[in-house]
């Protein structure tokens, strides 16, 4: 009895509908309630040793495959006293048998594309270690998906070649017209058997007629009808390729699926569409199974790549980036000149002004402030060859018997000097910035300079006997 929709298998797979039914069981569409995806569930109700072993082998084969033209098994389990179950990707689409019933013989180009796609899947199977032979290739086992990909399904009769010998377990079945002669009886089958079955499938796809049975042809009971007799629209080159794939003697067929694929491409004039995609060179054959390979596969500690110290790359500045900057500088200078026309002379005088040094004569006599200071440069103390802006003068000390109040000033502190602990500072108290001094005790305010253009920035010499200042 088929499983009813809604049945939950193994607490995970809920049956949606039945996709097909055979003598050994059925194939269902189901929902994986854990992942919320559609899956195909294939069952085997014949739990004899031979059928159970064959079904489990199909699960093991498919679980190890990774190819877009092949389904992938995701689960396998046995329900006691019920059956074996194999869960795989649900391939949505129509099989080639359904398409032929719907449309009749396929156009040449479409049949070639299906043949090329199936050849790629067969080449993947035949080059596994050990090789896998499908042995049941026919239109009903080729599905065409919604995105135009041909997928090879139903591995119930597949076998594995161990050391050049085929496994002897499992059932051996034949599909008349599609199975090669060597698949009958106890003859040996290999990759070329699948090539024969694919050739027969393409023959039927192009003509709508199953080719004469291979065993009858081998025994002389039948001859294969030329493909172009049944469909004159087929090119001679394609007909020759398919006839070669259907040779009774395996030695006369294409010796590999890759060779068959190249022949189909050559006769279709689509070589540009099927150029070999560049691939990375694989590891050497002895890498797999070696201790080094296992260590790398398990994330072991192999040779570590050394990383170089990081270094900052110097960015090359583009000369074009300097243009906006220069424009801003020029604009700023122009605005400054408009606001302060005398700015260039002031700046130039600041950097080129001579420095005056004043000798300071110590005195213990109290110093009184000067009401109207008048300090002129002495001709004797300044040579006539020197400019008047750089004099060396002796300060005039005016004794005073009485003390006066100290004016409220906030002088800029400078090092003490003058031999009497005087503080020199610049002040505008007379209307022009001049150098003044005052005692450290806040007494004895006096004017030191009376320069025509003013004086500023006083600084005592290290010996405290000379005073330097700047006059514009």
Automatic annotation (TrEMBL):
SUPFAM superfamilies: Protein kinase-like (PK-like) (SSF56112), Tricorn protease N-terminal domain (SSF69304). Residues 305-316 have a biased composition (Basic residues). Residues 279-316, 368-414 are annotated as: Disordered. The keyword Transferase applies. It is an enzyme of class 2 (transferase). Residues 397-413 have a biased composition (Polar residues). Residues 368-395 have a biased composition (Low complexity). It comes from the Bacteria. Its EC number is 2.7.11.1. Pfam families: PD40, Pkinase. Keywords: ATP-binding, Kinase, Nucleotide-binding, Transferase. ATP binds at residue 42. Residues 13-265 form the Protein kinase domain. One of its GO terms (molecular function) is ATP binding. Gene3D superfamilies: Phosphorylase Kinase, domain 1, TolB, C-terminal domain, Transferase(Phosphotransferase) domain 1. PANTHER family: MITOGEN-ACTIVATED PROTEIN KINASE KINASE KINASE 20-RELATED, SERINE_THREONINE-PROTEIN KINASE NEKL-3. This is non-specific serine/threonine protein kinase.
């Amino acid at each position: 009895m088929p499983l009813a929709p809604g049945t939950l298998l193994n607490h995970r797979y809920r049956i949606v509908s039945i996709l097909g039914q055979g003598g050994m069981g059925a194939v269902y569409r189901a929902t994986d309630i854990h992942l919320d995806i559609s899956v195909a569930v294939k069952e085997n109700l014949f739990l004899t040793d031979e059928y159970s072993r064959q079904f489990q082998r199909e699960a093991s084969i498919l679980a190890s495959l990774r190819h877009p033209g092949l389904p992938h098994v995701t689960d396998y389990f046995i329900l006691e006293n019920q059956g074996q179950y194999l869960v795989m990707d649900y391939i949505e689409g129509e099989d080639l048998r359904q398409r032929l019933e719907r449309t009749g013989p396929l156009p040449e180009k479409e049949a070639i594309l299906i043949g090329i796609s199936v050849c790629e899947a067969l080449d993947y199977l035949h080059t596994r270690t050990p090789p896998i032979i499908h042995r049941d290739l026919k239109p009903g086992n080729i599905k065409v998906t919604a995105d135009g990909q041909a997928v090879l399904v139903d591995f119930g009769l597949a076998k594995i070649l161990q050391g050049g010998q085929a496994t002897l377990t499992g059932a051996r079945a034949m599909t008349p017209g599609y199975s090669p002669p060597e698949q009958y009886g106890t003859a040996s089958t290999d990759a070329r058997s699948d090539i024969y079955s694919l050739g027969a499938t393409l023959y039927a796809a192009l003509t709508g007629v199953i080719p004469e049975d291979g065993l009858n042809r081998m025994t002389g009971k039948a001859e294969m009808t030329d493909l172009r007799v049944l469909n004159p629209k087929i090119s001679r080159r394609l007909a020759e390729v398919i006839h070669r794939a259907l040779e009774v003697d395996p030695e006369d067929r294409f010796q590999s699926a890759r060779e068959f694929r190249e022949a189909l491409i050559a006769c279709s004039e689509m070589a540009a569409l099927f150029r070999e995609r560049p691939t990375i060179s694989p590891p050497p054959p002895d890498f797999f199974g070696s201790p080094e390979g296992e260590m790398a596969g398990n994330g072991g500690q192999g040779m570590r790549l050394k990383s170089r110290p990081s270094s900052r790359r110097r960015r090359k500045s583009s000369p074009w980036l300097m243009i906006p900057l220069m424009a801003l500088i020029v604009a700023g200078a122009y605005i400054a000149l408009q606001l302060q026309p005398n700015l260039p002379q002031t700046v130039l005088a600041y950097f080129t002004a001579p420095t005056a040094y004043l000798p300071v004569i110590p005195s213990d006599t109290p110093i009184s402030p000067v009401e109207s200071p008048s300090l002129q440069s002495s001709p004797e103390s300044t040579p006539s060859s020197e400019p008047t802006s750089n004099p060396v003068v002796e300060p005039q000390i005016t004794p005073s018997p009485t003390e006066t109040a100290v004016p409220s000033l906030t002088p800029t502190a400078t090092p003490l000097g003058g031999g009497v602990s005087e503080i020199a500072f610049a002040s505008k108290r007379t209307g022009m910035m001049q150098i003044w001094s005052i005692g450290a005790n806040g007494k004895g305010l006096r004017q030191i300079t009376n320069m025509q253009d003013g004086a500023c920035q006083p600084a005592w010499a290290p010996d405290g006997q000379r005073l330097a200042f700047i006059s514009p």
